[in-house]
Specification:
This is Scaffold protein Nfu/NifU N-terminal domain-containing protein. Belongs to the NifU family. One of its GO terms (molecular function) is iron ion binding. Molecular scaffold for [Fe-S] cluster assembly of mitochondrial iron-sulfur proteins. One of its GO terms (biological process) is iron-sulfur cluster assembly. With 206 residues, the chain is α+β, with helices and mostly antiparallel strands. It folds into 2 domains: 85 residues, 2-Layer Sandwich (Ribosomal Protein S8, Chain: A, domain 1); 93 residues, 2-Layer Sandwich (GMP Synthetase, Chain A, domain 3), CATH 3.30.300. It is 26% helix and 21% strand. The strands form 2 sheets. A 5-stranded antiparallel sheet has the order 1-2-5-4-3, covered by helices on one side. Strands 6-7-8 form a 3-stranded mixed sheet. Helix 1 packs antiparallel against helix 2 and helix 3 packs antiparallel against helix 4. The longest helix has 20 residues. The two termini are 30 Å apart.
Amino acid sequence: MFIQTQTTPNPMSLMFQPGREVYAEGSKNFSNAREAMASPLAKRLFAIEGVTNVFFGIDFVTVTKGEDAEWETVKPQTFEAITNFYASGETVMDEEKLAASGTAIAEDDDEIVAMIKELLETRIRPAVAEDGGDIVFKAFDPESGLVTVQLQGSCDGCPSSSVTLKSGIENMLMHYVPEVKGVVQAGQDDGEMDLLDLADLHRGRK
């Protein structure tokens, strides 16, 4: 089995591409070993010392390590864990299929929320996925005009991306949805969020 790797904007995260389907449902994030109990593959990866987060995409796995861990140690163990998983014949998830993506439009969404989700789904998620991450809609506050999102995979904690928020997601949402006044990361009070540079979305990146 040949597994390719790809760097991400976050030096603590690496994408591993096994050349076959990983998670058909779209994306799934595991922030600790407890969450990984439902996934045989995620459990194997969290058994590697230094692994702090595991993210599944349709055809890739993004592994995030702690600052004290070295890729020269974590990387070969990740190769081994992924190879052994596929050789075992186990399923990626043991639990029932998860709900639709956090950017999927629900029947009870109002027009503004539906527009926000459509932009996230069609314009922003594809770009984020190319760098081993994902973005999930969490909430929209009509009083403040703030959209709350959750970054997953390599985008979560990327040190080089905070300054790109206003030239990327925020500007795009404010342009197409006038009711939006800003975008914040879930769990951050200061309004800053880590995000890969999405400014080129304005240039029609597919």
